[in-house]
Amino acid sequence: MNKNIENGDLRVFATVVRKASFVAAAEELGMSPAYVSKRIGMLEAALGVRLFHRTTRRVVVSDDGEQVYARALTILSSLDSLFDEVAERQGVPRGQLRVSSSFGFGRNVVAPAIARLAAEHPALQVRLEVFDRLVDIVSEGFDLDIRIGDEIAPQLIARRLMSNHRILCAAPAYLARRGAPQTLRELETHDCLPIKERDLPFGVWRLRGEGEEGVVKVSGPLSTNHGEIALQWAVAGAGIVLRSRWDAQAYLDRGELVQVLPAYTQEANVWAVYPQRLASSAKVRVFVDFLEQHLACDNRVPTQQMPHE
After folding, report:
1. With 80 as the cut, is the pLDDT of residue 189 above it?
2. pLDDT value, residue 91
3. What phi and psi, each to the nearest 5 degrees, are found at residue 278?
4. For the chain: N or C, fewer Cβ within 10 A?
C-alpha cells in the first residue's frame, strides 16, 4: 500500500460517489472523465482496494469504497474546517463556494451580488448554478442555496435575508378585454400564466388576504418554467401572473402591469440555506452577510428587511 494519498484525489473520489458517475463528477469538477478515472485508479492503487464496481451503465461503490468514503468525508471536513479557521484568523475568506439559486432570482439578483463580492474578496471562488427545481444541497454538493419560499427541511440551517411576497398582476390591455377578477375564485375563469416554481405545485396558487387563505387551481393557454417569460407574456396581455414583488415592481412602476386583487399575496421570503457542517464557516458567513446587505440596497426590492432566524 502506498501511503502517499493526495487530498485532491479524495475530493475526486467523494464527488464520484455523490454523483454516481465519472462523467457527472468530471463536469462538476471541471475535469475530463479520463482524468477523473486516472485519479480514482491512482487512489485505488495507493489504498490497495477497488473502490467501485464499474459497468457500461453505472458506477457502484464497493464495500471497501463505502468505508473509504466515510473516512474521506471526515478528512475533507476537517481540512475545510482548518482552512476556515486560518481564514478567520487572517480575516480573509478563501476557498470555493458552490451556490445554487432559481433562474430569475439567481440571474437578476444573486449573480450581480457575487460579482461585487468577488471584487472585494479575490481569494474566494464562487460557482453559481441556477435551477427550476428545489436543490438537495447535501446530496448535490452545494454549500449554499439562495431560495425564495419558506418550505425548508429542518436539518438545514436557514437564515432569512429579506421579506418578500408574490403578487397578482396583469396588463391594462388584458383587464380591459376580460375585466378584473373580484374574488380568488374568479381566477379560475381567467387566462392565468402558471409557472413551474421550485417549491410549489404547478398551477396551484395559495394566497392569503382579508383574514383568510385561499387555494385556487389556475390554467391558461400559456405556461412556463421561467418567471421572466411569464412576465413578458403578462406585459403582452396574455393573462394574469403571480410573481414576486421584486420581480414585478419595475413593470408596475411603468404602468405596464397592474396589481390584481391587491388584498391577496403569497408569502415568499428570501433565505440563505446551508448544511449543518458549514454552521461555523467563515466563507459562508461572509457570503451571506454580503448578500443580505446587497438586498437591502437593491432598489428593485421595495420590501422591508426582516430580522435573522
Report:
1. yes
2. 59
3. -105, 20
4. N
